[in-house]
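User: I'll paste a sequence; please echo it back and then give the predicted structure.

Assistant: Echoing your sequence first, then the prediction.
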Amino acid sequence: MLIGIEATGHCDLRCRHCLRQERREAYFDPALLERLSAEAARLHCTHFVFTGGEPTLHPRLFEMIDAVAAHGHVAHIVTHGLRYPDLREAIQSRRDTLTNLVLSIEGARAQ
């Protein structure tokens, strides 16, 4: 079982094919993860997915990933990947927690 968290509705791209046409500058409240992580453990759910918009725009994304890890859960991120060079260290240092990094392919051509 998997719990999906929309980290933010915000995205820094405007892809024509995106299912999320409404862009919201709202952010998931990390304080909710304590209760949610405990409830997930009770339900034997051990995997969280952080999506968006673009989840790496959430200023406290890695704090949230650390919070679910503290409860023994693992996670993955669904991202466009453009911010990976800046986030590489934060991602790689959480290899035990981040089981996947799912990259959206935005088109068949470079542009």
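Residues 32-42 form the longest helix (11 residues). The chain has three helices and four strands.
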